[in-house]
Every structure is written in C-alpha cells, then in structure tokens.
Design goal:
Blueprint: E1 2-7, H1 11-22, H2 24-31, E2 35-41, E3 55-56, H3 59-63, E4 68-73, H4 81-90, E5 94-97, H5 100-116, E6 121-122, H6 134-140, E7 146-152, H7 155-167, H8 171-180, H9 189-192, H10 195-209, E8 219-220, H11 228-237, E9 239-249, E10 255-265, E11 277-284, E12 288-295, H12 299-315, E13 340-348, H13 352-362, E14 367-369, E15 378-387, H14 388-400, E16 404-411
The structure holds L-homoserine (HSE).
L-homoserine binds near residues 129, 184, 185, 191 and 196.
C-alpha cells in the first residue's frame, strides 16, 4: 500500500479525495498498489467530513512521515505551496499539482530539484483541467517540432463569452454564474484579466520548447473590455470572440506568444468550443493539427487529472518520468509590439466620410463591417496584417483627429 497526502481541501482538493475514495478499487488495479490517503492538510476545520481523522493543520506531519511517498499539492498560489513542494521533493517524495501559478513561475526550479532527488513533479491538471495535454505534448507528440499551440485555456472566460454571445447576458451575471459553478479562481481577476490563461500558455510553451517561458514575458489582455457590440461585429464578420492563448515558433527561433481576445472565424475548430470547455490545438511538424477538447475547469475534471498523476507516481516510485525544462530568459520571446496581425477596429466619429478616408490612409486592406442597430456615429472595420507598434501609432493618429477608438481586437488565423 502506498501512502499519499493531499495538501488543500478546496474545490480541487476535495475532488481528489472523492475520486481516490470512490474509485479506490479500479485505481488500485491500474496503479498495481492500493493507495491510501494518510493526511489531508488544511488550515480550516472540517468536523463533518467522513475523513475528519485524516485532517492535519501541520505540514510537518506530512514532511516528516517517511511512509508518505506521493503528495498532491492542490492549495493554489505560490506561497506557501512553493516552500512545501520544494521540501517534499527534497525529502524524496513525488509531488503532483494542479497549481498552474506555481508551475508557470517556478517550474524550472522545481523540475530541477525533482530530477536531482530522483522523484517526480507532475502537473497534468495545471492546464486544461480534465483534458490530457501535458502527457500528449511531452510523450505522445514527442517526435514533433511544435510549430504552434493555440487554445481556449480558461473555462470561466469561455463560459462568460458564451453567455454574452448566445444569451446576451451581461458580463457580471455570467461571471457570478461561473463562480457559483466552481469554475472561477479565488480572485476573479486571474480569470477575466487573462492571468490564468497566461500561466497555462507559459507552461505549454515551456514544455514544448524546453526553456522556461515566464508569465511576465507573455503579452496578456483579458476580456473585461469586450462589449456586446464587439460580439455583434464578430458575428457579422462571420465569427466569434474567444480568449486565446497562443504560441508560435518564428523563423528566427524566437516565440510569438500572447493571451488576448481574438476574432475567430466560424470555420475554425476553436469557434465551437463553448461554455466551460477548453480546446487546445497543437500544430506539430509531423502530425499536423491535433485538437484536444474537454472540460477545462471544475472539481471532478481537474481532480481526475490530479489522481491520474498520483497513479503515475505510484507506478514510477523507483523511476523518473522525463518531464523537464531549463531556465529561460527574455531573449526567447519576440516583443509583442514587433509582432503583426490583422485587426478589427470600432470607432466613434461625427464625420464618417472623413473618418473613412483617414482609416484607409492609416490601415492596410480595410473593409467596413456593419451590425444591426448601430448608432449613427459608429464605424467599424477590419484591416490586414499590421505590426502592433504601427497599429498603436495609427490609433493615436485617429484619436488626435477627434476619432475615438472604442475597440481594437486581433483577428486570428486559426
Ligand atoms: N479558473 C480556471 C478556469 C480553473 O476557469 O479555467 C481551471 O484552471
């Protein structure tokens, strides 16, 4: 029998205990060992829990117990999760986690410690909730060079955008619903400002390219400025707005990486990924496009991935799984201002004729688009490929001539 500990008894942590207990027989069959939860760490009291006898408030109980071979860190946040994880790995315990913030910021360091101590640090649940994506990239697709990875990586924002697109629901009401359903992060800014998706694309980029891509190298923009008018324009253009995390390998070896709302053509495989679902497209040079789809958030989908990692650790108590990336630096990423893409722009103007002339002189290949019930002073257009720094100059010039720019949204080529 292998003893494990679960650190954190929130949404995911309680799901991990539930899955391990409910499926103990099939899990034992697959792990070829019985798995017993010896400790559950949480600073709160759970007197009514059927597992009340397993709770401890002391991390040292876990650290100092040599019987505990695998620890699930499902606390979230960098501190104290970083310190606890480090100590467990140094003590020869394997650690599995759903903590994307920790993996995205400290992954290289923790993977190095795991390697030096001949234990595993696995994090399948950190990206895509219940969708297998870490193992497919590191194992099944290992023969490929990764040309591009792009996806809808945050269930909460996808849920909100879907409610805005399909039910014309307000942003606030949709966010409240996502929180009630247990999808959202403790601080909703992590979802709606794009930080959560940023951590996830940083993890996928680090894994695919072998060097740590730190979240602060990723241009990140959330969905708080997206309006129902933008949604209507996307629809009349022939698509939808999605929050996309994407990373592309450029010819010079650097990465073009960002998280931002994008217009996605209705024909794209990602356009139909709705509600809390995530969709991740991996473009390999040998495989072509491979798409992963499933529930990207929620108690049991995420717990499923954590428990799969526990099983993997139990099966590899004496061996290491190869999962590694080295430290990285800013030279790996092309500055966002130097990247280029086609764009949608919506402006407010009292003189549409003059504004159109100005727009045509500043943006390439422009095409005016319309939406139902637009006010008289509104003008929207799409433009061709343009460097971001030039887009910003053009916007400034429009503003200087009294044309107010209300929205500027990337048009994706996915
Ligand atoms: N808040 C995250 C999401 C949870 O909505 O996707 C899963 O990482």
């Amino acid at each position: 029998m292998v003893q494990v500990a679960v650190m954190g008894h929130g949404v995911v942590g309680s799901g991990v205990v539930e899955v391990l207990m409910d499926h103990c027989e099939s899990i034992a069959r697959r792990a070829k060992e019985e798995i017993n939860i010896k400790y559950i760490l949480d600073i709160r009291d759970f007197p009514d829990s059927p597992y009340a006898d397993k709770f401890t408030k002391s991390f040292d109980d876990i650290l100092n117990d040599d019987e505990v071979r695998v620890v699930a860190e499902v606390m979230g946040g960098v501190n104290p999760a970083f310190e606890f994880t480090k100590k467990c790995l140094l003590a020869g315990k394997s650690v599995v986690t759903s903590n994307k913030e920790l993996v995205a910021t400290k992954g290289a360091e923790l993977l190095e410690i795991a390697k030096n101590n001949n234990v595993n640090y696995l994090f399948e649940a950190s990206v895509g909730g219940g969708i297998p994506i870490i193992r497919p990239i590191s194992q099944c697709l290992a023969a490929n060079e990764f040309v591009e990875i792009a996806g809808i990586l945050n269930g909460t924002t996808n849920f909100i955008l879907t409610k805005m697109i399909k039910d014309h629901m307000s942003f606030e009401d949709a966010l409240r619903m996502a929180q009630e359903l247990g999808y959202a992060e403790r601080k909703p800014e992590a979802d709606v400002e794009g930080f959560d998706a940023c951590r996830k694309i940083a993890i996928l980029a680090s894994l695919s390219y072998g060097k740590h891509i730190y979240p602060d190298l990723v241009h990140t923009q959330g969905i708080t400025k997206i309006t129902l008018d933008d949604v209507a324009y996307a629809s009349s253009w022939g698509g939808v707005i999605k929050l996309i995390g994407q990373v592309k390998r450029l010819d010079d070896g650097r990465l073009d990486i960002s998280v931002e709302p994008m217009f996605i053509d209705n024909s794209s495989q990602l356009a139909g990924v709705d509600d809390v679902f995530n969709g991740i497209l991996v473009r390999g040079d040998a495989t072509g496009d491979v798409v992963f789809y499933g529930k990207g958030a929620g108690k049991l989908p995420t717990a499923s991935a954590v428990v799969a990692d526990i099983i993997d650790c139990v099966k590899h108590l004496k061996a290491r799984k190869y999962l590694f990336w080295a430290n990285g630096d800013s030279s790996l990423v092309k500055p966002y201002e130097e990247t280029s893409y086609p764009v949608f722009v919506c402006v407010e103007t009292d003189d549409k004729k003059e504004a159109e002339k100005k727009i045509v002189s500043l943006f390439p290949d422009t095409r005016i688009i319309a939406r139902a019930d637009a006010p008289e002073n509104e003008l929207a257009f799409v433009a061709g490929n343009m460097i971001v720094a030039d887009q910003e100059k053009a916007v400034e010039e429009l503003e200087n001539s009294g044309i107010k720019v209300r929205s500027r949204i990337r048009i994706s080529d996915l």
